[in-house]
Backbone:
């Protein structure tokens, strides 16, 4: 195994997560379920449970709660060193600005650089890991905090009209933060980010009657899906995620089926199965929390990683691959980390 | 007007319940059929699932379909584009050719070509060691690419079926003594192997077509009457 860069080593030191208290069962949706052509579609087959953010719980609240778990282990002083703060949510509390500024204020920190990362979707954690690494390696400081929040389940998908739809039963809420530092203690070995801008316009929001998302109207907004689009997104996910994983594997000289752990986004069980098969990785080593948490969007990768750490599934020196794809397939990314057991 | 589709089976079964294994929109509406199809979509497929029972390879070849069909219809073209069939000579039997498959040292292979110009199908009926029972059948079809790809050229479809004789040589007495291999030992190589040969065909036909040479070379055409091609 060889590092592919001469830049200073960047490490993912730890991750911490937060799940909202409100644990919602699949039956909650069955109560409301309407006839929907996509009801039995495997892309929308409901997880047993997921967690919903409270109606008044913001992205900032959730990130703050994930950070609390981090400082509980590393001590509050870990925040004093944060030079770079990156945040991401697919449903910002206000579309005009992201969570970064308010997060810094709540945490009482003053990083040199705060960036709200709006792209990256379900693979945003990997994009932010790369961005943080570049910033630190380029002289941006020694420590970065990367924070992802997902609160659409308890907001968009609990709405009276939207909760009837097949798509509503899959998302779940949560938040996660990653502590990134200039260090070789738990090194990021390699990252691949690929953009497929030609697919960007397939990500759409819909309402009945139709309107633009910022216009007023009686219809509640939901994700625009039809059968054709579902097949296209499934096919893109099938291709893109194994492709970025293999690229990183090639560069670090590890065969996919020799990876100690794979953690991905978890849109549905079908894609999880297909990625296992494509990479020759057993479901046990492809850790997911779909049944308990549903589709966590960007939060799935760090949350699944933490689940493996907590269970002792991975130890010092193990190679962890983090991978996912975003939206309707406009971005895919993979990162390999040689876990240093640097969690306190 | 509704056609009496499957009425005979309904009458035979005494009811409209579908027979097992049937997926039609009347009894499997789209919201039932789509999930089944989605589950069947994988990112990768095991080699055996793809090439186990049927071995199909396809290729586009930039060469007019009729010219390619003429070339493929002559058994001796196999001397050129196959990987290991060499030394084609006519036998006493009309249309039956003898050659050697260098995959099995000193192995005789017999070939009879059955071609249909209207359908542009070319089937090579072959067998190792003996020419009485030609059970290894290479089914090929040349399609006009103008129709299927909206561009000039040919599409070649090629399928072999996993005949049980691939697993057990039914005529061991015809094999050369001490030959360590049997043609069916190579079944799992047929997918990639046939693709390599199809690429040979592509390279040869495209070279000739692009350089103004006849796709069927003169030596093959000149003696066509002597070869008893079918």
Residues:
């Amino acid at each position: 195994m060889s590092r592919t860069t001469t830049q200073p080593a960047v490490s993912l030191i730890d991750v911490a997560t937060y799940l909202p208290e409100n644990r919602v069962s699949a039956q909650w949706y069955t109560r409301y379920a309407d006839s929907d052509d996509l009801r039995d579609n495997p892309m929308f087959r409901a997880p047993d449970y997921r967690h919903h953010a409270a109606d008044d719980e913001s992205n900032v609240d959730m990130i703050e709660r994930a950070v609390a778990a981090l400082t509980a282990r590393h001590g509050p002083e870990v925040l004093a060193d944060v030079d770079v703060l990156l945040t991401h949510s697919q449903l910002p509390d206000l579309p005009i600005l992201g969570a970064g500024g308010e997060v810094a204020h709540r945490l009482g920190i003053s990083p040199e650089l705060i960036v709200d990362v709006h792209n990256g979707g379900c693979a945003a954690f990997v994009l932010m890991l790369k961005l943080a690494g570049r910033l630190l390696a380029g002289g941006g400081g020694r420590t970065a905090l990367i924070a992802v929040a997902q609160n659409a389940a308890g907001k968009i998908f609990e709405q009276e009209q939207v909760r009837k739809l097949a798509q509503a039963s899959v998302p779940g809420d949560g938040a996660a933060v990653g502590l990134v530092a200039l260090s070789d203690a738990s090194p990021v070995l390699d990252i691949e980010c690929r953009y497929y801008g030609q697919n960007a316009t397939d990500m759409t929001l819909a309402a009945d009657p139709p309107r633009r998302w910022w216009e007023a109207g009686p219809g509640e907004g939901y994700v625009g899906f039809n059968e054709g689009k579902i097949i296209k997104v499934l096919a893109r996910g099938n291709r893109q995620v194994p492709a970025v994983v293999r690229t990183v594997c090639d560069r670090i000289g590890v065969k996919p089926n020799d990876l100690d752990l794979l953690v991905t986004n978890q849109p549905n069980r079908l894609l999880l199965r297909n990625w296992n098969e494509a990479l020759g990785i057993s479901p046990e080593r492809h850790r997911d929390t779909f049944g308990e948490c549903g589709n966590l969007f960007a939060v799935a990768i760090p949350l699944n990683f933490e689940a493996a750490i907590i269970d002792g599934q991975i130890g010092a020196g193990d190679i962890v691959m983090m991978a996912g794809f975003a939206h309707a397939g406009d971005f895919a990314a993979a990162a390999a980390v040689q876990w240093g057991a640097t969690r306190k | 007007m509704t056609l009496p589709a499957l009425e005979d089976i309904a009458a035979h079964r005494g009811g409209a319940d579908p027979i097992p294994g049937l997926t039609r929109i009347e009894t499997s509406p789209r919201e039932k059929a789509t999930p089944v199809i989605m589950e069947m979509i994988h990112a990768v497929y095991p080699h055996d699932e793809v090439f186990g029972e049927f071995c199909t390879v396809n290729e586009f070849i930039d060469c007019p379909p009729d010219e390619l069909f003429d070339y493929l219809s002559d058994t001796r073209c196999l001397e050129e584009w196959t990987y290991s069939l060499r030394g084609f000579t006519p036998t006493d039997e009309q249309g039956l050719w003898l050659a050697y498959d260098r995959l099995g040292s000193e192995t005789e292979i017999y070939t009879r070509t059955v071609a249909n110009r209207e359908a542009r199908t070319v089937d090579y009926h072959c067998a190792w060691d003996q020419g009485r029972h030609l059970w290894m059948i290479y089914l090929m079809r040349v399609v006009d690419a103008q129709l299927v790809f909206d561009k000039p050229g040919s599409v070649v479809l090629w399928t072999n079926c996993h005949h049980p004789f691939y697993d057990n040589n039914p005529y061991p007495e015809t094999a050369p003594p001490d030959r360590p291999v049997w043609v069916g030992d190579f079944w799992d190589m047929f997918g990639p192997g046939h693709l390599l040969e199809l690429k040979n065909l592509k390279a040869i036909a495209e070279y000739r077509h692009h350089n103004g040479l006849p796709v069927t070379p003169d030596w093959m055409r000149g003696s066509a009457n002597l070869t008893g091609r079918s």
Remarks:
- Residues 190-210 of chain B form the longest helix (21 residues).
- The CA atoms of residues 67 and 215 of chain B lie 6 Å apart.
- The beta strands of chain B are 54-61, 85-90, 96-101, 107-116, 121-128, 136-144, 154-161.
- The two ends of chain B are 45 Å apart (CA to CA).
